[in-house]
Design a protein that fits this description.
Layout lengths: L19 H27 L6 H30 L5 H26 L4 H10 L1 H18 L3 H7 L1 H7 L2 H17 L5 H27 L9
Helix pairs in contact: 1-2, 1-3, 2-3, 2-8, 2-9, 3-5, 4-5, 5-8, 6-7, 8-9
């Protein structure tokens, strides 16, 4: 059935988003919320609440590095589904906090487990696969954090976007690291949940990329 000629097509009103002042307030709240887990870990450790402080700090910082990595990956799908383009303004902060917790996770491993002995740490990295994968994740995060500024994005140009696609490698490796770490205690519930979350977030990107490629006209269909 042909549509009524007098009927106007439905259109979505563009999302105006928050004002600059509101966006600043949102960033401040997000900053404080992202620091709360670290403050809690530090307070409990300083007051001797955890039974095994080193394990508590290691697991806590590692968990939050993964959570914030997933939050960073979730920004683009949320923006596409809601039309809230201003969400992209929060992605850098989330990514830097993911790196911050990953750095604390690695520092705890280097300090508490090996007393800053780089040789002993390196032997441990090579010996245990789950530590090897975790170390690779951290190393790959370093250039992303180092080039997160707008100045670096302008300087690198297209290479910046190519470099930051490393997050699509880091996320599955982080899940593998998490899985192997929990496998020692046969606790797979959380790795499965977060693994599914990462699979969905990356799967959406694969679908959108495929859909965009499919919608492009083939070279043979273009007429001169």
């Amino acid at each position: 059935m042909a549509p009524n000629a007098t009927q106007r097509p439905l259109t979505h009103k563009p999302s105006l988003g928050p004002t600059p002042a509101q966006l600043t307030a949102i960033k401040c709240v997000l900053f404080l919320l992202a620091l709360l887990p670290f403050a809690r870990i530090a307070w409990l450790t300083a007051n001797g609440v955890p039974v095994e402080p080193v394990e508590f700090v290691t697991h806590g910082t590692g968990d939050w590095a993964l959570y914030l990595l997933c939050a960073t990956l979730a920004v683009t799908p949320l923006r596409r589904f809601t039309g809230w383009n201003w969400l992209l303004r929060l992605r850098r902060m989330l990514g830097l906090f993911a790196f911050f917790y990953a750095a604390m996770h690695f520092l705890t491993f280097l300090w508490a487990d090996h007393g800053f002995d780089l040789g002993a740490m390196w032997k441990d990295v090579l010996k245990r696969p789950f530590i090897t994968v975790g170390f690779i994740c951290f190393v790959l995060l370093v250039p992303l954090a180092a080039t997160s500024t707008r100045a670096m994005a302008r300087r690198l140009g297209r290479r910046w976007a190519q470099l930051h696609r490393l997050i699509y490698v880091i996320a599955p490796l982080a899940i593998l690291h998490y899985w192997w770490m929990k496998a020692g205690k046969h606790n797979f519930e959380q790795p499965i949940v977060w693994g599914m979350a990462v699979a969905v977030l990356l799967g959406l990107r694969v679908y959108w990329s495929w859909d965009r490629t499919r919608s492009l006209p083939s070279p043979g269909s273009v007429r001169s």
